[in-house]
Design brief:
Layout: E1 6-7, H1 17-21, H2 25-42, E2 46-47, H3 67-70, E3 74-77, H4 82-89, E4 102-109, H5 115-123, E5 129-135, H6 137-142, E6 144-146, H7 152-167, E7 174-179, H8 189-200, E8 206-211, H9 226-235, E9 240-243, E10 264-270, H10 280-294, E11 299-304, H11 313-332
Parallel strand pairs: 1-11, 2-5, 4-6, 5-7, 7-8, 8-9, 9-10, 10-11
Antiparallel strand pairs: 3-4
Helix pairs in contact: 7-8, 8-9, 10-11
Length: 333
């Protein structure tokens, strides 16, 4: 059965205990199969690999969203002194993070980052429509200490160019770029959008952008409003957006009427910062409320507010099932 509104997830999935206990390549592949099968059994239309291969036990609070990229890109060192740390900590925009993910000491290059290889590893593990995710250039630029460029816009644009080369070799059904820092810095929207569009322009399949207010160790870390972000969202050359609304409030989706009609909207209807599992009726009502603000034809998909990595698997699985049942209930009304 085809659905007009697709059910999808944002990206991450809780790392199974047995994978952490025995992190071999075969165990990783087996775990990714489990992630795919869990979503498929629940009825998810566009699945993700769970980002399990990015998880680093030394940096569990970011689930690999940052460090997986920073530790592989060339031109970045993770060896820095007390003066470097003090310089990074003076940035009020990163008060939630004590240390940088790395320090830029020379011209950035792709280094050993190989997202096409990551994609090839997971593509054959499912026959479903597959969404491949990556962290965006603005987010990465904010967690790096710059000792080379002297201009945050130049750092973001360079990162955008490097990521564009990577995604140009990925044939995923959907490529989603994650930006979780821009809500707290809407004044940086012009250069943040320019860097992100550099990546989007290289995507061959459907282009998605995920924006949320942060999920650092299960905490919201960015302050701001969706209204302030409308110019940024309107400037993106994306096919659809994947936005946090369940915790923020579905009623705030009304401001997205000012985003061009060519851009479809994804509505977050699952709160990933609580163990409470939403009911299908609650989810259907939230979709109905969003449709009343935007029109039902603007909603491309429904999804959680962010990734599931911080939850127990049993909770995440029940939320995934509720998401699909709520979408089905809405479409059947």
């Amino acid at each position: 059965m085809s659905h007009r509104i697709l059910a999808t997830v944002v990206g991450s999935y809780p790392v199974p205990d047995w994978l952490q206990a025995s992190p071999s390549r075969q165990a990783l592949i087996d775990a990714i199969r489990v992630v795919f099968k869990t979503q498929e059994d629940a009825g998810i239309d566009v699945v993700t690999d769970g980002e399990l291969y990015r998880f680093d036990a030394n940096h569990p609070e970011t689930n690999g969203m940052i460090d997986y990229f920073a530790r592989r890109l060339g031109g970045i060192t993770t060896r820095f002194g007390r003066e470097d740390l003090n310089a990074f900590r003076t940035d009020a925009g990163l008060s939630y993070r004590a240390d940088p993910a790395g320090m830029i000491e020379r011209e950035l290059d792709e280094g050993t980052l190989n997202l096409p290889r990551d994609y090839r590893m997971v593509r054959h593990l499912t026959r479903s429509r597959l969404k491949f995710t990556l962290t965006g250039p603005h987010m990465l630029s904010k967690v790096l200490l710059d000792r080379h460029y002297g201009d945050p816009a130049a750092v973001a644009l360079t990162l955008g160019e490097l990521l564009a080369r990577q995604v140009a070799d990925i044939n995923a059904d959907v490529i989603q770029i994650d930006e979780a820092n821009i809500p707290g810095h809407p004044e940086e929207a012009p250069w943040a959008a320019r860097a992100l569009n550099t990546v989007l322009d290289a995507v061959k399949g459907e282009k998605a952008v995920h924006v949320c207010f942060g999920n650092y160790g299960g905490q919201t870390v960015q302050q701001g409003t969706w209204q302030d972000l409308v110019p940024y969202l309107a400037a993106l050359r994306a096919d659809h957006l994947v936005l946090e609304f369940k915790r923020w409030g579905i009623e705030h989706a009304a401001c997205l009427k000012d985003v061009p009609d060519s851009v479809q909207i994804g509505i977050g209807v699952i709160d990933i910062k609580t163990n409470v599992v939403e009911t299908p009726d609650e989810i259907a009502s939230d979709i109905e409320a969003a449709a009343s603000h935007l029109g039902p034809d603007r909603i491309a998909c429904v999804h959680p507010d962010c990734g599931f990595w911080m939850l127990q698997r049993s909770v995440a699985d029940r939320k995934i099932e509720a998401l699909v049942r709520g979408r089905d209930l809405f479409e059947g009304r």
